[in-house]
Amino acid sequence: MTQQLRIKRLTRRGLLVALVLLQDFLPLLGNIPLGPLSITTLPITVTAVAIILGPGEGAFLGGFWGVLTWVRAFTYPSSPLAPLVFTNPLIAILPRILVGVVAGYTFLFLKNRFPRWGAMLAGGLGALTNTVLVLGGIYIFARTSSVASFYHTDVTALGTVLMTIAGSNGMIEMITTAILAPLIALPVRQIVIKGQH
Fold first, then answer.
1. d(Cα 116, Cα 83) in Å, to the nearest integer?
2. pTM of the model
3. Are 135 and 162 in contact (CB under 8 A)?
């Protein structure tokens, strides 16, 4: 890789990291309250990057989002639940990396024959990956009375509550990401492709 390409890649990553920081720290930009639910918009960003730049860059940005979630759980929690669950990197970091990987490879597999459908599926599967792995991680690694209390239930009913969240919150995030990620990513991808020729 030439020096010019390295600088271009570092600059691009710096801008993407700044975008994730803004989304994570500014209310209503990264999490949109919808009645009793809170819809996170970061899977849209990570999925869009995975579609535009590939699974490697998607995994990088997802990893940054995960590390940010993990560090904030210790220093500046985004909610009372964060210190109880997101101090575990298997819940905070791994799912976010896999959002970029799953979305990126889904799009790569389908882009030549079905670019729009591939981008929509990439968005949906990226968001679903985050939901399933975070809530599954909570159930496997953080099934404690403190976590159950946060969800206003007991440990025995925590699995049911998490499945309800996956079916409501998770479904809305999946549909939102499946719609918005292609609207953002496909036009930008065309510009990026033209800029490389």
1. 39
2. 0.92
3. yes
Cα–chain-centroid distance for residue 78? 16
How far apart are the C-alpha atoms of 142 and 122, rounded to whole Å? 29
Average pLDDT per block of 10 residues along the chain, 197 residues long: 86 94 85 69 96 97 96 90 94 97 98 96 97 96 93 93 92 94 96 80
In contact, 47 and 123? CB cutoff 8 Å: yes
Cβ pair 108, 166 in contact under 8 A: no
CA end-to-end distance (rounded Å), the chain: 17
Residue type, 10: L
Structure tokens at 20: 């994730």
* CB of 49 closer than 8 Å to CB of 57: yes
Q: In whole angstroms, how far apart are CA 163 and each of 6, 39, 58, 116, 136?
A: 44, 16, 27, 30, 9
Is 128:172 a contact under the CB 8 Å cutoff? no
Nearest to 40 by CA among 83, 91, 93, 96: 96
Q: Where are the alpha helices (DSSP H) in the chain?
A: 3-25, 42-53, 55-75, 82-85, 89-92, 94-110, 115-141, 145-150, 158-165, 171-195
Measured from the Cβ of residue 36, the count of other Cβ atoms closer than 10 Å reads: 7
